[in-house]
Each structure stands twice: as C-alpha cells, then as structure tokens.
Amino acid sequence: MATTKTATKKPRSKSAAAAKPTLKKKVEFRFETLFEREKAVRELIARTCLTMDAYDFNSYLDLCHEDFQYTITTYSPELRKDIIWLDHDKMGMKTLLDVLPLHASDHFLRLTMSRHLSVYTIDYSANDTRASVVSGLQVFNTAKDGGVTELLSVAKYFDTVALEGGKASLLSREVRLDTRMLGETGSLIPF
After folding, report:
1. Domain residue spans in the chain?
2. Residues near 170 by Cβ (< 8 Å), separated by ≥ 6?
3. pTM of the prediction?
4. Would you state the pLDDT for residue 167?
5. Residue 101 predicted with pLDDT over 50
6. In CATH, what number does 31-177 get?
7. Are 83 and 180 in contact (CB under 8 A)?
C-alpha cells in the first residue's frame, strides 16, 4: 500500500513577504535618459517650425506652455542698443495669429514660408525640468508657382523648454534677428 506524504505548510519568512510587490505611489513621469530628453526637445523645436511653415497656428500654440512668452529682438547700430520688435504672451500670440490671415492675405496667396533650423546647444537645469536651447534659423520665402526662392532672414532662436509630466513644451522663445531688412514687404508672420 502506498503512503502519501502530506506537505506541511511552512510559515512564510519575512523576506518572502518583503519580496511581494507592493502598490507604488503614482510618480510623475520623467524622461529616463538624456537621449529621451534631447529627442523630445529637438522634436519640439522642429515641430514649432513645421507648424508655422504650414500656417497651422493652433497646432503651434498647442506646443507652447501656458506661460509662453514670445519676443523678437535685434541690435540697432543706429541706436547702439538692443531693440524689441515684438513681445507677446500666449494669449497675445493667439490674438496675433488669429488676425494674421486677414492682414497677410497677399502673403498666404503668393508665398510659402520655410524655416530651416539647426539646433546648436541644449543645456539642462539642475533638476532637468528646463532646457535652454540655442538654434540657428534661416527663413525663406518661395513663390507658390514654384518660381523664386529668396532668403528673408537669418536669426537665432533662444528657447526655454519646459520638461514636465513626460512632455516638452515651449516656455519662451526669443527670435534674435541678424537680418533687420526683411525685404520690401517684411513679414507679419512670426518666425
């Protein structure tokens, strides 16, 4: 006759209980690696150019932080000082971009604007919640009939990017113009 052994249940050790997964507190997502942060920052800066090139102003504003500030500056050799051509918060930019098609209708009908961007440097804050970005910018106008392309301006972007909640958003942008003479008609469209 076969005998069966009954296993006696051993009490669980403290280490086994400690190894059991516990519910973690919800932690705000952060970029795990420098690569992820840099990719998010570079893509954000590029998308701001692409949305403006497409005259998709609402998508541009969606890329901006709620505390967004936009400034266009240049140096005036005549005045021997820096001057500010435009200074708007996010609501000011929304107002400007909402009325832009009414004031620049000729531009929208005749020309396409193209921004060519090169990110130079990205520096992160000590707690990795902000990135300071310097980029080179060339802005071209091309006739919609495929004819002439002309260089409109050379500038630099000095951007501050907020890295919050696993997302990058544009907190501020200073467009520092090297070119002050923007052709016969200039540009009502922000760079």
Report:
1. 31-177
2. 44, 45, 48, 63, 64, 65, 68, 159, 160, 161, 162
3. 0.79
4. 93
5. yes
6. 3.10.450.50
7. no
